[in-house]
Amino acid sequence: MKKYFNIFLLLTVMFALVSCTNYYTYKFVNDDGSVIVSKSGMPGTEIVAPEDPVKESTDEFDYEFIGWDKEVGTLDENIVFTAQYRAIKRSYTYKFVNYNNDVLKEEKIEYGTLPIAPSTNPVKEPDAEGTYEFIGWDKEIEIITCDVVYVAQYKIVKNEYTYKFVNFDGSILKEAKGEQGTLPIAPTITPQKSSTKEHTYRFIGWDKEIVELTGDVTYTAQFEELTREYICRFVNFDGSLIEKQKVAYGSKPTLPEQDPVRPKDAEFTYAFAGWDKEIEVVTSDVIFTATYTKTKNSYTYKFVDFDGTILKEETVEYGTIPIAPSEPTRSEDEKATYTFDGWDKEITAVYGDVIYTATYAIKLKINKFSELSGKKISILGDSISTFYAPGSPMNSYYSEEGRYYYPRYCQDVKTVEKTWWGQLINNTKMVLGINNSWSGSTAVGNKVGNGCSDERINTLVENGNPDIVILYLGTNDVCAGYSAETFIEAYEIILSKIYNLCTAQVYVCTLGYSAYTGMKYTDKNRISYNEAIRAFANKHNLCVIPLDEYVMEDNYKLYLNDFLHYKYKGTTLLSQICEKSLCEYNDIEYTKKIEVEHPVPEPKGHIVIGAYNQGVWDTNVYPNNVLLYSYDTLLPGSTYAYYYIVRITKDGDNYRVTGKKDINASETFDKCDYYIMINSTYPSSKFFSDVNVGDMLKLTGDITSGKCEFTLIE
Predict the structure, then answer these.
(1) Rounded to an integer, what distance in angstroms lies between the CA atom of residue 456 and that of residue 476?
(2) What burial letters (b/e) apply to 510-539, b meaning 16+ CB within 10 Å?
(3) Which CATH number characterizes residue 413's domain?
């Protein structure tokens, strides 16, 4: 154990002695400081240099090792040896070459030197595509930093060539120029080759493929020859097509499988006779027209009596004029006597089977009445004779909206007792059968709303046969533009249907004057209607109710609510006219007096005032319907659409006209002293046109009393 301890002690002493000896380190490093080699040694140790180091070249320099920065000897201290280099400027080669890489110039120069281009521009020889113009080098010439090649660049000036497109005959369709390599553009219009009678030609393209230009070139149109086809039409007599065929030149068309037919007409029956031309080989378009033989048709005409008894019958050729038999007679019966009045239609050439029926003028054997009281009256009319209100003791027949005028549209006829027919019935103590009046209806027509219709006429006897029927139609027929002849034809039908129902006394009303100008209404036609109505009444021994003798141009405004319908004053007049006519026809004394107003126009520029500052329009109190208002009593925003208004202002002893408002104009009134307000339906309205703004008016009477007059100072 002791032995081991001694060995350990010896080693410790030796280590301590060694540690007390100096060691040094030497290093060899490159110029960038990187260590090439590093070693340690005891003082005096020979330093051994490594192999020559290398420094990498840059673009500008190569580097040659020339030694260390200090002499290499023995190691006697820590020491670093740094490699030393000599910089050698690098050289580079530049070349200028042609498009085909032929070297035009080559030279080696130092880094940073500017290459010098060849003194003469390079050349590229022309070829099939064109000539070439030198435009420079492929890159900018800069100071050299590496080997570099400059390649010559050229702009091509392409060759230009002419191309043509020509037709089969050499005529030029298109001619143009294009650069080498351009694709020619064919004409936009398809070439044509004229047809011959035998052939047509279809363009199929050009004689060669259209390719890019390499020289002048001509393209010629090519055509396919086709046998020409023609249109053959087989048509009927009227030009209508039976069959159409396409037939090749030199061939014959095929006949239609079935012969054509021509329908018979009123005059002839037809049989197919062939075609208008020979069927031959086709050399052009052709039309074959069917031809026919014709046989004249025969027809039967008959003349028959009122009851259908045949008086004469004969079959004759088309166009023959029938010969009438001798005039027939019709025996009188308990209702009427009859006089032959001709045939129901004009006798003309026969164009088909025809029947002529004998017509007779009818004169009823009507007993006249000794009194009207208790007699049943029915009416066939239009809106003038309507009235419908639930709960009314009497109404017209139709309750549907739009089929009656009264009482909805008239302010002073609100009860049936104020209608013309209500007053007539009450005044005579007659009894209403049926009032079949329909607003807007005409006599003419075959619809349910027309006076001729069975639906309306048959209702007249629903409450038993009437003793009296009044026909009051025509206003809407005038509006519709029907002629008086057409209107009377409708009245003939109506009368015939009434007589087939009953033996009542029938009265017809004429039409009073109206200034209406709407639709097709004319006063000339109204007058012709009245003439026709009187002739119709005379023919059939009827009584005329002559409304036109009472309602005239000078007074119609007093009686009409609008241009066609009557207000209460008018319905009262109509009832009086009707009562007088019924009495006179039956030889009943009529003791009442019909007072018809025919207002006398005021002198020019003269007007009588009816009231002052009172909104009372009672025509019994103010017959002229002229009122005077002060500004304070007439609201500035008031409008009086149906009144003429004349504004006046005090000017000395007189009054000056300072404004006017026409009817149908609504406006807010300017301030002035007074307003003269004139009903448009009264003759006093003439004053409105007599005076003008600026005129002076003279006052007579007390202006505030409402009893005064104004007169224009000329």
Answers:
(1) 17
(2) bbbbbebeeeebeeebbbbbbebbbebbee
(3) 3.40.50.1110
DSSP 321-356: PP---SPP-----SSEEEEEEEESS-----SS-EEE
Q: Does residue 414 sit in the same domain as residue 509?
A: yes
CATH of the domain at 151: 2.60.40.4270
8 falls within a domain: no
Q: Give the closest residue to 35 by CA, choosing from 78, 80, 101.
A: 80
Count Cβ atoms below 10 Å from residue 584 Cβ, excluding itself: 12
C-alpha to C-alpha distance for 385 and 586, rounded to whole angstroms: 23
Residue 10: predicted pLDDT = 53
Query: Does residue 630 sit within a domain?
Result: yes
Residue 109 has pLDDT above 90, yes or no: yes
What is the C-alpha to C-alpha distance for residues 397 and 466, in angstroms, rounded to an integer?
A: 15
Let me know whether 395 and 283 are in one domain.
Answer: no
C-alpha–C-alpha distance, residues 561 and 299, integer Å: 58
Check whether 645 has a pLDDT greater than 90. Answer: no
pLDDT at 603: 78
Same domain, 566 and 502: yes
CA–CA separation, 67 and 86 (whole Å): 10
For residue 116, the model assigns a pLDDT of: 94
Residue 419 has pLDDT above 70, yes or no: yes
Which of 114, 108, 116, 113 lies closest to 92 in space, CA to CA?
108
Per-residue confidence (pLDDT) for residue 4, from 0 to 100: 53
> Long-range contacts: 696-705, Cβ < 8 Å, 24+?
696/651, 696/654, 696/655, 696/656, 696/657, 697/605, 697/648, 697/654, 697/655, 697/656, 697/657, 698/654, 698/655, 699/654, 699/655, 701/609, 703/609, 703/612, 703/628, 703/674, 704/612, 705/612
Q: Which domain holds residue 213?
A: 160-227
708 within domain boundaries: yes
- For 612: left if phi > 0, alpha if psi spans -120 to 50, otherwise beta; the answer is beta
Please tell me the least confidently modeled range out of 397-406, 463-472, 610-619, 627-636.
610-619
pLDDT of residue 600 exceeding 80: no
Mind listing the pLDDT tens digit for each residue in 511-570?
A: 999 988 889 999 999 999 999 999 999 988 899 999 999 999 888 888 998 888 999 999
5 domain residue, yes or no: no
Cβ(663)–Cβ(684) below 8 Å:
no
Per-residue pLDDT of 308-323, as tens digits, reads 999 999 999 999 999 9
Q: How far is CA 82 from its chain centroid?
A: 105
Residue 276 shares a structural domain with residue 193 = no
Give the confidence band of 622 by pLDDT, cuts at 50, 70, 90: very low
By the 10 Å C-beta count (0-12 exposed, 13-18 middle, 19+ buried), 18 is classed as exposed
